[in-house]
Give the backbone structure.
Amino acid sequence: MRTGAGTRLGGTGLRVPAVSFGGGPLAGMPAVFGYDVDATRAVRTVREILRSPLGCLDTSAAYGDGAGERRIGVALAQSGGLPDGFVLSTKVDRDALTGDYSAAQVRRTLEGSLERLGVDRVKLVYLHGPEHLAFADAMAPGGPVRELVRMRDEGLAAHIGLAGGAVGPLARFVATGLFEVLLVHHRWTLLDRSADQLIEAAHRAGLAVLNAGPFAGGILAKGPGRHGGDEATVRRAREARDICKQYGVPPAAAALQFSTRDPRIASTVVGVSRPGRVESAARLARCPVPEELWEALGRPGGG
């Protein structure tokens, strides 16, 4: 498994490990994740990430209405700041109440993120969920895209990217040539491979690609009996689980390595909710998986 210096993140000059961490669960959002994470546990988890060789953490201003970023900021202060080479990213988003996705909203969001995180700039900021705005409006003067570029030019963020799960709308933004990184979530897993063409287009266009949510909302980690999902998804999850069992491979390991073995994917982002999950993610990425298993699962990982 790639650790430490890791893989080049496209043309950004940054380097990322094969496995990165997502800060959504750390914000304490039980309505989204089905469980809560208190501030103390979240801060301990971030500090564990900062100590690990997997030096990449993604968050968002929208996670817990800023709670996730505040907790990361506390951990950074307690740890003496970001380690050398660590990639901390966040996302700008529309106003959850009004739907405002203007230039002013984007600037407010990033400036608020920097304050909560306790940093002057971030290495990477994503335009999150651009499908919530018409493409022409997003690209127009006074829209979020031009403002994101402007803030990068001002030095508030070193690089800009796109993040979301709506494959069709994201493809239009990829084609503009303005973005450096694509973060796609829940659309390139053992159960859902709908982002294949989007990932290929981004890769060919020179964007670095990060893939988030490899466990398909948790169903590939917790098992179909302990997680919701429609009937077809649960059936596919059970089939994948049974195949993994035949080869003696934990389904979570296969789910993670489906993404990490794909040469188009620079890093795979997994959510963590407690310190022990940091090392367990590394173990899953190192778990031996026979080539025959990928054949049985239908040639995952771009094969």
About this structure: The CA atoms of residues 150 and 156 lie 9 Å apart.
